[in-house]
Amino acid sequence: MSKLNTHQIRDQARKIVASSKGGIRYGDLIEQILSSDPETPKNTIHGSIWDLHIRFPQEISKPSRGLFVPMSSTPGGSIAPAEPEEEPAAFKESDFYESFADWLKNDLDEVTDAASLGGAAMGKKWGTPDVVGVYKPLASNLIRFPIEIVSAEIKTDQGQPVVAFGQAIAYRLFSTKTYIVMPVSMTVADLSRLEALCMLFGVGLVLFALDIKNPAFQIRVRAQKFTPDMFYVNEFAERLKEFDVDKFEHLFR
Is 47 in contact with 63 (CB distance < 8 Å)? Predict the structure, then answer.
């Protein structure tokens, strides 16, 4: 198989982007071209496609770093994004509380105990994580350390990344770490922006499949550790104890 020249590489890249409704990451585009034409040097591909959005502005946009998205021309000559993917079937966030609590404890190993809360069950929507866990010293630990609270906000609606991010940031008042848990089916552009925000502010990001039997949680960004405000830590603990003393005892005793 012969090597592709610059013009051929760009033509192939344009076709791949056009067929990627939700957009395609730069690295994935490189790999697709390489897989179909392995004789073409990788550096040549890099040099040919890095500025696709500049060379073909009527076809391709770059809404965020490393992401190419196809564009379509409307009858009036304006540019509009490609049609979005079909919405998945509706699920309740509560369908995934228990499974995520188990995953947070057993797979991610971020906590020693976890429990589901959800919604505004404790009276404050932005002060009630869907799942809360604690990392606390065990009887076998020779060195004792303060209890750490880990909070998570789960969304089944892929169109709510900004809301989820805002809630996760609010949980930082009383949490050492916070996580956002979003459907893997969210658009590439939204995922790119949310991932950048999470990395910038130290919020963890987990993706999952909208499948109750097998949500297949996967870590995208690990949460950074922060020192919470102890006034709000105690305020949260008091609200939890009033709401469900058994969950309070399970987590903090």
Answer: no
Q: Domain 6-81 carries which CATH code?
A: 1.10.10
As a whole number of angstroms, the distance between CA 154 and CA 70 comes to: 30
Give φ, ψ of 171 to 5 degrees.
-65, -15
pTM reported for the whole predicted model: 0.71
Identity (one letter) of the amino acid at 38? P
Cβ(116)–Cβ(131) under 8 Å?
A: yes
Strands 148-154 and 24-25: unpaired
Give the tokens for residue 9: 């590489």
Enumerate the β-bridge partners of residue 229.
none
Q: Which residue has the tokens 């609010």?
A: 170
Give every CB contact of residue 57 below 8 A, 6+ residues apart in sequence.
71, 79
Query: Tens of pLDDT along 142-169?
Result: 888 889 999 999 999 988 899 999 999 9
Residues forming CATH 1.10.10 domain(s) in the chain: 6-81
In 10 A of CB 187, how many CB atoms? 20
pLDDT digits (tens, 9 = 90+) for 5-42: 898 889 998 999 998 877 888 888 889 998 988 889 88
Residues 6+ apart with CB under 8 A from 61: 53, 68, 69, 71, 79, 81
The whole-angstrom separation of Cα 144 and Cα 126 is 31
Its sign, for the CA torsion 186, 188, 189, 192, is positive
Angstrom distance (rounded) from CA 111 to CA 52: 45
* Residue 140 backbone phi and psi in degrees, to 5: -80, -10
